[in-house]
Amino acid sequence: MSEVTAGNKSHTVQFTILCFSDLPHLQIPLFMIFLTIYLNVIFGNTAIFSAIVLNSHLHTPMYIFLSNLSVMDISYISTTLPKLLFMLSTQHKVMSLVGCMTQMYFFITFACMEMILLAVMAYDRYVAICHPLHYTLLMSPRTCLIAIISVWVAGLLEPVVFTMLVAKLSFCSSNQIDNFFCEPSPLIKLSCSDTTLVNMIIYILGALVGMSTFMLTLVSYIYIIYNILNIHSTDGRSKTFSTCASHLTCVLLFYGTIVSMYMRPSSMYSPKQDKFFSLLYIILVPLLNPIIYTLKNKQFKEVFKKLMNIL
């Protein structure tokens, strides 16, 4: 273990990411599986982004937010999967302190961005369904631009203090992270410093970003569902619900995977299960979002047909 001594503290310079070391015979198959997943995520989300940018009919708030979601999904999964693919192919599983902190920072950044954006998209659907006559006023291009800039700025600033505090911790007992990336929880457990402040920041971040965005999304959908139930026509209810069904599915997937990771009973925590749930919330949402949003969307199907004809 390489260390640098500063006063009485000893800071680990390099970490060993254990990755899937307990499955040596599956390194190549895992590499092929994750490479396929990563390429599908890149292709699917790039296709959505390109379709929205190239088609003027899709330059509406809902699709502008969706194009940003596609960029975030690509960025989110790119913080972990390329490094994982490198480790599986070369078996070189050492990461510097700077590299580890950088990966953790951007992982938290894009996770926070996605939470905030999903809440903004839920509000957009609420306005469209519950206040359709005021939609163009409440969701004007200026409002959308401010919302998107706010999402990116908030996401970039949110993990700064937390990352700086983790970087200052001492890691004198072990430098082995039993996961496939620098996930905050196992990283903090390696520290021999007092982690009270770091854990407190985690709870504050969870309350500020996680709970607030979840509550905003939940309240928006309570009003949406209430409004839909008051529509007397069955056909009308079906059409109205279909306008937000894709987003609701995406929200359930995103928060469902995060809850399965962080809200389990302590008796259920184990390195193997942690890796599985980490894979679940890192891979599942970016992989399924393009399918969810394009499967029953006629506008997207028409745009993709035109793009394919052009190509």
* Multimeric organization: single chain
Overall 3D form: globular
CATH H-tier superfamily: Rhodopsin 7-helix transmembrane proteins
Helix content: over 70%
Strand content: 5-15%
> Quick one: CATH class?
Mainly Alpha
Blueprint (SSEs and pairs):
Layout: E1 3-6, E2 9-12, E3 14-17, H1 27-54, H2 61-78, H3 81-90, E4 94-96, H4 97-130, H5 135-138, H6 141-157, H7 160-167, E5 176-177, H8 184-189, H9 196-229, H10 234-262, H11 271-294, H12 298-310
Parallel strand pairs: 3-5
Antiparallel strand pairs: 1-2, 3-4
Helix pairs in contact: 1-2, 1-3, 1-11, 1-12, 2-4, 2-11, 4-6, 4-7, 4-9, 4-10, 7-9, 9-10, 10-11
Describe this entry's structure for a reader.
This protein is mainly alpha-helical and 311 residues long. The chain has a single domain, classed as Up-down Bundle (Rhopdopsin 7-helix transmembrane proteins), CATH 1.20.1070. It is built from twelve helices and five strands. It has a three-stranded mixed sheet with strand order 4-3-5. Strands 1-2 form a two-stranded antiparallel ribbon. A hairpin with a 2-residue loop joins β1 and β2. α4 runs parallel beside α9 and α9 packs antiparallel against α10. The relative contact order is 0.14.
